[in-house]
Design goal:
Layout: E1 5-9, H1 13-23, E2 28-32, E3 44-47, H2 49-57, H3 61-67, E4 69-70, E5 73-77, E6 83-88, H4 89-96, E7 101-104, H5 105-114, E8 121-122, E9 127-133, E10 136-141, E11 144-148, E12 150-153, H6 160-165, E13 173-183, E14 195-198, E15 202-210, E16 213-221, H7 232-240, H8 247-252, E17 259-266, E18 274-275, E19 278-280, H9 283-286, H10 295-312, H11 316-345, H12 350-362, H13 365-371, H14 373-376
Helix pairs in contact: 1-5, 1-10, 2-10, 10-11
Domain FAD-binding: 6-164, 271-338
GO molecular function, one term: FAD binding
Protein name: 2-polyprenyl-6-methoxyphenol hydroxylase-like FAD-dependent oxidoreductase
Length: 380
């Protein structure tokens, strides 16, 4: 019987979390990942309190805390290094019941994959198509096919599952800026707090990562498809090497081949995350800008809610309808909010930059924290 079987397409954070959530509730799950192993190219990931509660629902929050780092605080600075806003992580923990934890993506994937039965993990499995077959769905891949009562599309921005079940969905849209992500070597004096520094059409952020390392990211308003002729490490040094400390020192600690460059894309809003017995989560459903640090967090929420719906409803179609009602409005609000903040962070016109920085300086920290409540207060 296929009713309580699921194929997850995509072995990233959201797909593995969905696999864990369903496996622990008695479902037979297979997670298909096209890469040869379940891992993630290394950068950091911010796990806000809502994501930590999702991980707690999976019984994995303790292991993730051990693998990551909890900072004392953070905030936003201007181009001269002056603080515009400050955040106290202890206050965040007290207000929302969990801290902000920064973890290496590869460590989080390792923890999630380790929570699944070995037979549930199908690496080197590149999915080529998905088709309905009565009360089941067939997933076709290079080595054959799989049949299940549910297919979960967790295969990212260019999702094969989305193309199969949502043929009229619009293509990804360039968000207008490019991002660089990097992890330093262990630092002589590890960071105790992080910051995002706003410039003109550029920004740079850093946060502690554990093991004495730091996770750093930069962004700039640029046309899509570019590449630095002298290498991306040289490019970030050229753009950010004279910015306020500790940015230059952090860049000195980044390996020469340790800078990843990605154009940032988002998805047009879908009218539903469900097509028959196919369902989308994470970037496959609602790819967003990284400005709020909520992409991975929302994928974890998706996974936990999907499993809960499937285990409470009398059948899969009823469960998926409830999942769509719960997740689509929330995630699409987060997408819009992240896009608005990204537009503010990447302002380039000098008068607009001055007005932005002044407004940020005048807003009390408690107001900023309260404004985040609709996102961070989420519980499974």
């Amino acid at each position: 019987m296929a009713e309580r079987t699921a194929v997850v397409v995509g072995g990233g954070i959201g797909g593995l979390a969905a696999g864990v959530a369903l496996s622990r509730r008695g479902w037979r799950v297979e997670v298909c990942e096209r890469a040869a192993e379940f891992t993630e190219i290394g950068t950091g990931l911010s796990l806000w309190p809502n994501a930590m509660r999702a991980l707690a629902a999976l019984g994995l929050d303790g292991r993730v805390r051990e693998a990551g780092a909890v900072e004392a605080g953070g905030g936003v600075r201007d181009r001269a290094g002056r603080w515009l806003t400050r955040t106290d992580n202890a206050e965040l923990d007290a207000r929302f019941g969990a801290p902000l934890v920064v973890v290496h993506r590869a460590d989080l994937v390792r923890i999630l994959a380790g929570a699944l039965p070995r037979e549930a993990l199908r690496s080197s499995t590149s999915v080529t198509g998905v088709r309905d077959d009565g009360d089941a769905v067939v997933v076709e891949h290079a080595g054959g096919s799989l049949r299940a009562g549910l297919v979960i599309g967790a295969d990212g921005l260019n999702s094969t599952v989305r193309r199969a079940g949502w043929p009229s969905a619009g293509p990804p849209r360039y968000a207008g800026f490019t991002a660089w992500r990097m992890v330093t070597e262990p630092l002589p004096a590890p960071l105790t707090s992080g910051a995002v520094t706003w410039g003109r059409g550029e920004e740079f952020g850093f946060t502690s990562l554990g093991g004495g390392r730091a996770y750093c990211f930069g962004a700039a308003v640029l046309p899509a498809g570019g590449a630095a002729p002298g290498g991306e490490k040289a490019e970030v040094r050229r753009r950010f090497g004279t910015w306020p400390e500790p940015i230059p020192a952090l860049l000195d600690s980044v390996p020469e081949d340790g800078v990843l460059r990605h154009d940032i894309y988002t998805l047009p809003p879908l009218s539903t995350y469900v097509s028959g017995r196919k369902v989308l989560l994470g970037d496959a459903a609602h790819a967003m800008t990284p400005t709020l640090g909520q992409g991975g967090c929302q994928a974890l929420e998706d996974a936990v809610v999907l499993a809960d719906c499937l285990c409470r409803a009398p059948d899969v179609p009823t469960a998926l309808a409830r999942y769509d009602r719960l997740r689509r409005p929330r995630t699409q609000r987060v997408v819009r909010r992240s896009a608005r903040l990204g537009a503010v962070a990447n302002l380039a016109w000098p008068p607009a930059v001055m007005a932005r920085d002044l407004a940020a300086r005048l807003i009390p920290a408690r107001v900023t924290l309260r404004a985040m409540a609709p996102i961070l207060d989420w519980s499974p």
